[in-house]
Amino acid sequence: MQISLATFCTVTAFGVIGYRLLGLSLFDALYQTAITVTTVGFGEIGPTARIDRGYRVFTLLLVVFGVGAVLYTLGVFVESLMAGTFNDSLRLRRTQRMIDQVSDHVILVGAGRVGQAILRYIGHHDVTCVVIDQLSKPQSDHLQITGEATDDETLRRAGVDRARTLITALDSDPDNLYVTLSAKALNPDLFIVARTRSRANTAKFHQAGADRVVSPYEIGGARMGALALHPTLADFMDEALHGETQGMQIVEIAVSDGSPVLNRRLGDTFATSTHHALTLAIRTDNVYVVAPNPDTRVNPGDVLVVLGDQKSIDAMRVVVAG
User: Fold this and answer.
1) Is the pTM for the entire model greater than 0.85?
2) Measuring CA to CA, which residue among 88, 159, 150 is closest to residue 130?
3) Residue 290 φ/ψ region, left for φ over 0, alpha for ψ in the -120 to 50 degree band, beta for the rest
4) Measured between alpha carbons, how far is 203 from 209 in angstroms, rounded to an integer?
5) pLDDT tens for each residue of the chain, 322 residues long
């Protein structure tokens, strides 16, 4: 499409310049070029004395090359419409503009079976996600980039410098490792969760910059074992983590430096009847305090792990954020 438009513009410029040299004004030169290359042929314009053999020879050459350029451009344009490439180009540009406006988002690399499961989980939370995959997923509700994630330019297009989290869920450990290295180099503050096929590679992923390393096979095996030995507990944890039917959720709420709950007792902060979310644990200085008592005080940088329905969790977020 770009070649055809460039050809058409070149022929038009050639015609305008040629008629200008033959004595026509700029507007008349453009008008004569237009009626010539489109084969409208209203007649020759300009002073009669200027319409000589040279004028008509140039017009003849412009007809030969100009009509061919117009027909070629129209053919490419119609073919693009029929093939959908023109609409695809517009869609990709619109998507890229939307991605350029987001920040603090999640980037998912790889939309295979594991990636689709991740997207279903993300879909239950109010999180903006940008998906990078080699194949386009037209039915996805998330922003998409079709490309090779091991390419730094693809990561930049996904806004890796503005993202808060990257999940690399490709099938290959070397590819996931390469994406981890590239993403960490582009954004040292990025939180990276990497998929691995072998737990033996965990140390390598951490050295590359991954904050968490996950083996879907081990998680799947542990889940099956839990269902076999503790089916009720396993079902409860699934419901609490995903919150699809009963409305229960387990979420984390970070306490910022300016939070009004700093240095206050848990019992005083969340004792009102409007907050029914249960504080299961507090992570402070990378140490978990499980089932904290009401006298426990909240410190800057703490993360509250709470259980409740969406309404109570939202109310708790408001209290923590002030």
Assistant:
1) no
2) 159
3) beta
4) 10
5) 567 677 778 878 878 888 787 778 788 878 777 777 766 665 666 555 556 566 666 676 666 666 677 777 777 666 665 555 555 666 778 888 999 999 999 999 999 889 998 998 888 777 899 999 988 766 667 899 989 999 999 999 999 999 999 999 999 999 999 999 999 999 999 999 999 998 899 999 999 999 999 999 888 888 889 889 988 888 888 777 765 666 778 888 988 888 888 888 888 777 654 556 888 899 988 888 898 888 888 888 899 998 888 888 888 888 888 7
